[in-house]
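Ticket #4471: structure output looks truncated?

Reporter: J.K.
Steps to reproduce: submitted the chain below (329 residues) through the standard prediction queue, then opened the result file.
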Amino acid sequence: MARVVRFYQHGGPEVLRIESADIPPPGPGEVQIRVKALGLNRAEALLRSGTYIENPPLPSGLGLEAAGIVEAVGFGAEGFQPGDVVSVIPPISMVRWPAYGELATFPVEHIVRHPPSLDWGTAASVWMQYLTAYGALIEISKLHAGDFVVITAASSSVGIAAIQIANMVGATAIAVTRTSKKKAALFEVGAKHVIAAAEEDLGSRLTEIAGTVGVRVVLDAIGGPILGPLSSAMAKGGILIEYGGLSREPTLFPLFTVLSKMLTVRGYLVHEIVSHPSRLAAAKKFIIEGLSAGSLKPIIARTFRFDQIVEAHHFLESTEQIGKIVVTL
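Returned output as attached by the reporter:
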């Protein structure tokens, strides 16, 4: 028996229950780990509330990221043995492979030996944020030295990862946050410029920063009205990556700006990296090298205990955190 988190109905954090369950051994091609820490993601709050891209049968588990010790190895899952220290690349389905539990099972290709310098909480905070930012900025946008890149929702774990990756390749990171409350923290994590969108004119500030060169890459998690000033500040031939939809307002497509500047507007999910072996291998190499060199360093907003999972989800839904929320077991 092992403790796991499940929910029997959609709703707020209070629907999460910790209960004991029989956990079957890993199947062919799977690895089971004894979880030491979990990294929390907004996708888990969306699944719990019934607004995620998956629609699970209830009751359901949840969770995308974990770090721990290999407990058992299924037939054909080569390269790992009990006792190995590992972390987990988010699977395509957290319903099929939920992470929230004392024991969790994943496909072997999602198991990684992370740098030994990482503690449990940091190791559980790596893969979702850096894979998301890497896929958008490096693989798709080909971000390089001299580029201006705008990063919205910049205080999120993905936003911070994007700032760090931009700095790795010599690009200029322009962080967009809602108010000036988080400006100092964003400068501290490496943003070259920070714009408080609720307090400043976003379009004017972007023009002031990027000038006639313009912004070549935008990584946007918000959508809504912000798309207008973002696209207006872009360079001809620029690319705008949409990977979220935090705005509750309608997203109006800036047709004439896109046409006149020959912009690319592209939807993106980290699944396209995770599900492609060669692309995932390249991403893992980039991220592990960055972690080992210290260029990539997850920022932990707050740590909770496993029996505080409801409180952790309340904090996940707040706008107070800068970086990742971790749950330890």
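Triage note (M.O.): checked the attachment and the full token line is present. The longest strand covers residues 30-40.
Status: closed, working as intended.
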